[in-house]
Specification:
With 238 residues, this protein is α/β, with parallel strands linked by helices. It contains six helices and eight strands, in the order βββαβααβαββαβα. Helix 5 links the parallel strand 7 and strand 8. The longest helix is centred in the C-terminal third of the chain and has 19 residues. The two termini are 21 Å apart.
Length: 238
Amino acid sequence: MGIVSNTVNYLDGETVLEAFFAVDEAIVGQRPAVLIAHMWGGRDDFVAEKAKQLAALGYVGFALDMYGKGVLGTNAEQNGALMQPFMHDRGMLQKRINAALQALRLLPWVDVSKIAAIGYCFGGLCVLDLARSGADVLGVVSFHGLLDAPEDLQNQPIKAKVLALHGHEDPLAPVAKLQALQQEMTLADVDWQVHVYGHQVHAFTNPRANDLPTYKYNAVADQRAWCAMQHFLRELFG
């Protein structure tokens, strides 16, 4: 096994974005790929590590960039200011994450017929919106993601399978919103799954998420969610 990683620039209109990707050079030829959408603070070490872990599983891991090259928040106020324009303009959000998908397709290691996406918190919403945009991906996984459907967009036919990994006590996506997602996906005739982890709040997969009472890491739930994702990816990619 020889995991190598690097960054690659790509564009959404005139906005320069910078993704982090990782591959196992010991694998010959093209292989499935997984987009990774970051939390509200921007493309950080957390998603870079996920890209490496996915490369170790035999995939191309591609940690995308929603905000712009070098743009990172350093506190909750800055993070919220970075995220809010995309929350208010979901068309812009969908355009931005589809730009990442197109950049991923250009990497020489990628089997373009086998692409999935995962996302954390704000990134969970991003990958759900990737599916809602009608993007040609096999599946998406939301880890403790925001779940609200766009109110100002007509959803395209959803091609992707959907897996939501959710903390039952998550105050940012309470039970009513989870039920709304299930109804939305059912009406759209999507192959969907929801795994709910009891007693878990927001950001349960992030070891650095203990700064706020509604954000708390849980190692057991983290491991269960990662295993559920791996099973889902194996099913998607065959």
